[in-house]
């Protein structure tokens, strides 16, 4: 493996960490309704647990209400039960062929708790990125030790990896700040 491969690999994994962090942020509740909030819910469908989006159409009715429209008649009760039993604190109401999921307003205390959750998620992502930096630097040091690269190349590469790391950490900080602003907005 060459230094270029190591840098490219580290960059790709850091990009994946950012994508995973963005995905996690969609699951954290703000005051508004968001269909992505229900992405983590799985429903029993003919003996298998499948994502809600594979058995129903999930969309917004208005800013505070998500609508879930099952594709099969008998799925309404199972979907309603799955949403109610999820850890999202939602209380759906079944209207026959449509399930309405109103988003309860968040108290100030709950909003502050959610910002702490966002910061913790951000910190976990930063740790993952720093670990990727360490792994890349270790791989480069091994190349130098095995005499496949020079110490000058090592220093240059470590500086480039640090720049990429700093960029990704900055991206995470920006995402955290935007999500906090979104949560605290009443």
UniProtKB/TrEMBL annotation:
Pfam families: RRF
Function comment: Responsible for the release of ribosomes from messenger RNA at the termination of protein biosynthesis. May increase the efficiency of translation by recycling ribosomes from one round of translation to another.
Principal location: cytoplasm
HAMAP family reported in the protein's UniProt record: RRF
CDD domains per UniProt: RRF (cd00520)
Residue stretches in coiled coil: 129-167
Localization of this protein: Cytoplasm
UniProt-recorded name of the protein: Ribosome-recycling factor
Keywords per UniProt: Coiled coil, Cytoplasm, Protein biosynthesis
Family to which this protein belongs: Belongs to the RRF family.
SUPFAM superfamilies in the cross-refs: Ribosome recycling factor, RRF
